[in-house]
Design goal:
Layout lengths: L2 H10 L3 H15 L2 H19 L7 H22 L9 E6 L7 H12 L3 E4 L6 H11 L3 E5 L3 H4 L2 H10 L7 E5 L5 H7 L3 E2 L3 H16 L7
Parallel strand pairs: 1-2, 1-3, 3-4, 4-5
The protein binds cobalamin.
Cobalamin binds next to helix 3, helix 4, helix 5, strand 3 and helix 7.
Family: Belongs to the methylamine corrinoid protein family.
Protein name: Corrinoid protein
Keywords: Cobalt, Metal-binding
């Protein structure tokens, strides 16, 4: 079995120190952090996601796999993320209140940083006003909200209603995502953008910055 496949297996098995060691070895061997993420770590966590799509969701096993994924991603971050003096833009990223899932949100942060964006990560279980307060503090361009539960995805709408109440709606592009979120759901809550994964999210952010440079206001 090749090193990359072993990484997937270690994530699936929830073996964090082994995952970290193998990621380090793979980096020394190939130096290709993108490939290790795409072909090693992600298939590992996605296999767990598939397995727990049904009702046999088993929290301890899933937690261990999530931890192993994070250990691996931490090794890759310095290679993936750029430190830009002139950032492509500023984004606030977080998982909405009531929701502790943060793997997808971390991937969005990492891909954004890899694309030269400055990221303010508000973590998981983040209240609507925290997204807005941090966006104001760092003079952000985009607010990215993640939700993994059907029960919490509705709370994303609160960020939009609070932006309106605070007279800030036009200032920020709001992008939403996560497995229970779709384009039609994004339209329903009045979000500006939806994309399926972290890579397309960072690409969309680049397009948003071009629209902003052309004078676009959001929420119209
Ligand atoms: C790992 C996991 C956990 C871990 C989370 C660990 C962590 N640190 O994140 C733990 C064990 C803690 C957990 C807990 C729970 N979980 Co859970 N969990 C999962 C699991 C297996 C995988 C999620 C994951 O990380 N996927 C991998 C990442 C890479 O994918 P992703 O997050 O979807 O992100 C991708 C895209 O969606 C997108 N994306 C994500 N965010 C954003 C944001 C933007 C702006 C954009 C554009 C894109 C984007 O980009 C990413 C890919 O590049 C899913 C199953 C599944 N099929 O998804 C269940 C699942 C989400 N969990 C579920 C449930 C029910 C729970 C619990 C309520 C269980 C319980 N009884 O306690 C609790 C929730 C507690 C809470 N209040 O939040 C259900 C949700 C069902 C539903 N319809 O609401 C699922 C679907 C499992 C199931 N079949 O029942 N869970």
């Amino acid at each position: 079995m090749c090193l990359i496949d072993k990484i997937s297996e270690m994530v699936r098995g929830g073996r964090a120190p082994e995952t970290q060691r193998l990621v380090r070895e793979a980096l020394e061997a190939s130096g290709d952090a993108g490939e290790i993420l795409e072909k090693g770590l992600l298939p590992g966590i996605l296999a767990i996601s598939e397995r727990f799509r049904g009702k046999d969701f088993f929290v301890p096993e899933t937690l261990l796999a999530a931890r192993a994924f994070k250990f691996g991603l931490a090794e890759l971050k310095p290679r993936l993320e750029k430190q830009e003096e002139n950032p492509a833009g500023r984004v606030v990223v977080g998982t909405i209140e009531g929701d502790v899932h943060d793997i997808g949100k971390d991937l969005v942060s990492t891909m954004m940083r890899a694309s030269g964006f400055l990221v303010e990560d508000v973590g998981s279980d983040a209240p609507a006003d925290l997204f807005i307060d941090r966006a104001e503090a760092v003079q952000a361009d985009i607010i990215c909200i993640s939700a993994l539960l059907t029960t919490t995805r509705t709370a994303m709408e609160k960020v939009i209603s609070r932006l309106k109440e605070r007279g800030l709606r036009e200032k920020y592009a709001v992008m939403v995502g996560g497995c229970p979120v779709s384009q039609s759901f994004a339209d329903q809550i009045g979000a500006d953008y939806y994309t399926e994964d972290a890579l397309s999210c960072s690409r969309k952010a680049g397009e948003i910055m071009k629209e902003k440079a052309e004078g676009k206001l959001w929420g119209k």
